[in-house]
Amino acid sequence: MKFSAKINKIGINPYVFLPINVLKEICKQANKNRSPIPVTIQIEGKNFIQNLIRYKGKWRLYLNMPMRKVAGKDVGETITIDIKFDAIERIISMHPKLEAALNENKDAKNIYNSLPVSRQKEILKYINFLKTDEAVDKNVKRAIQFLSGKERFIGRDKPF
Asked: Does the first or last residue of the chain, that is N or C, have fewer Cβ atoms within 10 Å of its Cβ?
């Protein structure tokens, strides 16, 4: 389903609203009307994966910098997007160094396992997208400290 929409911004996050008919069709295909709904989008022939998010009662499709750069569009401009529901399950694996650290610290592991799945994914994504071994080592230690209630991590003071 193709649509055009003006790029808005909330805080620092650029997004578009979907036309109601497009949103209804995606919710129907997903068989749900709760956030998040996984989608694939195509902008100027380039594919991206994203989630539709319901925030403050309104559904938004957030557009990161690579998406806007491909389109050559920014906040206030109109962008054309081809969007589809993405039925493929998105699994984020645990970095081996984080897994080893959690296995060494049972208390931190128990806290991690008690976190909502969304919070677990925040931690996994953060660690998995680090580029150097040094950064991974440093942040795995920070994650364990965070789970132990001793340090701030992923923009949070407490894990729960």
From this structure: C
